[in-house]
Amino acid sequence: MRAYPHGRESQKTRFAAMPPKQTLTITRILLAPIWAVQLLTGAKSFLDNPLIGSRALNQRGLHTARVRLADTLCRWRRRRLARAVRPEWREAFDRNGFVVIPQIIPPEDFTALRAAILSYEGSAREMQQGDAITRRLAIDGAMLAAIPALRALLVRKDIVALLHYVAGFRTTPLHYIQTIVSKIDAPDQDPQEALHADSFHASLKSWLFLNSVSLEQGPFTYVPGSHRFTPERIAWERQRSLANPKAIDRLSARGSPRVGPDDLAAMKLPDAKPVTVDENTLVVADTVGFHARGPSAVSGERVEIWSYSRRNPFYPWLGGDLLSLPGIAERRVGAVWAFRDQLEKWIGQPWKPVGRRRPAGPAVNASFTEAPAHEGSAAQAE
Q1: Which one of 4, 183, 214, 254 is at 20 to 30 Å from 319 when CA atoms are compared?
Q2: Vertex 314, ends 313 and 318: CA angle to 5°?
Q3: Is the CB of residue 306 less than 8 Å from the CB of residue 136?
Q4: 199-225: pLDDT as tens digits
Q5: Which long-range contacts link 234-241 to residues 24+ away (Cβ below 8 Å)?
Q6: Cα–Cα–Cα angle for 34, 36, 40, rounded to 5 degrees
Q7: How many CA within 13 A on the CB side of residue 298?
Q8: Digit-coded pLDDT (tens) for 82-97
Q9: What is the 3-state secondary structure (H, E, C) of the chain?
């Protein structure tokens, strides 16, 4: 054995020589404070955080306590945001968990905006999931400068008030031009077609459709009322928290639970409702409710203005989001993409650059890599 000063091996050598079990124990001790802090955030993976996934802690009510607290704070924040929202929009959302608003833009203005968006060329990313490809162009400073009508739309007071209400925060969502290319030549099913919730707490997604979506084209689908944490939903949340995360499907284990007819029945929820739309329709939803992309019977593509927001559910305040400030907000998507590019080896990067593209057109069939549970917000699928 190599001699070291004072007859001792270096710390690095001793650590490398430790049995794997002992090394794992030390790693868990070092990570324990991080895992504990994550309990006060939107962290949701039963697989990656052993405290969140602990059967013993969840038997004592850890998961349901996080669910109840997040829901209580969300409802409190929404009550403070409610006045600014059109009553008919607010009532539809409170009842169903989503709201559908046809003709959100005056028809003559919509035609011009749609033409401007579809002719815009910018840096694009694509992700493949099963037999569908999602393409996104960030709505950044360059796009907003090129399409002033788009900038005006995104700051329209009635729309902004609705987005704030559903998100539960005064925050600027991440905005994209998103294209869904369905029924490509791939053997696997699109995982977005399975009914699921995005997390254990409220989050915002919205779609302003630039073209109509029929039933056979796989429309957005939602279980009405499933955004509410009823006693039946809480009981279901408790049961799912007790499952072995290594024995269930990976997406559910990572905190985005998939549900079937028996689950809906246990929660006394109705069947999912497909939301077919005409062009120029805005759909805004809380994706803590169970939703999916409906199965598509035909190949094709649809283009939409897609927005997303999910903040730490345990914040009691409404605003305070420095990343929503003008000059910063429109740079966030590019920054997140660049950050994940740099760390792709460690955390993965499902969004592959495909050069400068227009929103519509043939997809570049980039191979899909599953995004980890701690993926950045820009990595979320529809």
Answers
A1: 254
A2: 75
A3: yes
A4: 999 999 999 999 999 999 999 999 999
A5: 234/64, 234/67, 234/68, 235/266, 236/263, 236/266, 236/267, 237/63, 237/64, 237/67, 237/200, 238/58, 238/61, 238/63, 238/64, 241/46, 241/58, 241/62, 241/63, 241/64
A6: 105
A7: 9
A8: 999 999 999 999 999 9
A9: CCCCHHHCCCHHHHHHHCCHHHHHHHHHHHHHHHHHHHCCCCCCCCCCCCCCCCHHHHHCCHHHHHHHHHHHHHHHHHHHHHHHCCHHHHHHHHHHCEEEEECCCCHHHHHHHHHHHHHCCEEEEEEEECCEEEEEEECCHHHHHHCHHHHHHHCCHHHHHHHHHHHCCCCCCEEEEEEEEECCCCCCCCHHHCCECCCCCCCEEEEEECCCECHHHCCEEECCCCCCCCHHHHHHHHHHHCCCCCCCCHHHHCCCCECCHHHHHHCCCCCCEECCECCCEEEEEECCCCEEECCCCCCEEEEEEEEEECCCCCCCCCCCCHHHCCCCHHHHHHHHHHHHHHCHHHHCCCCEEEEEECCCCCCCCCCCCCCCCCCCHHHCCC
Per-domain boundaries in the chain: 44-379
CATH 1.10.260 given to domain 44-379: no
* Cα atoms in the 13 Å half-sphere on the side-chain side of 136: 23
pLDDT of residue 374: 36
Give pLDDT, residue 369.
44
Write the pLDDT tens digit of every residue in 346-375. 988 999 999 999 999 877 654 444 443 333
Q: How far apart are CA 116 and CA 193, in angstroms?
A: 30
Q: Which is more confidently placed, 186 or 38?
A: 38
Between CA 315 and CA 317 the distance in angstroms is: 6
**Distance separating alpha carbons of residues 185 and 145, to the nearest angstrom:** 37
Q: What tokens does 180 get? A: 């869904």
| Lookup result for tokens 């993976």 | 45
Q: What is the pLDDT of residue 190?
A: 82
Model confidence over 266-278: pLDDT tens digits? 999 999 999 999 9
Question: Cα–Cα distances in Å, from 50 out to 38, 46, 58, 69?
Answer: 11, 7, 11, 20
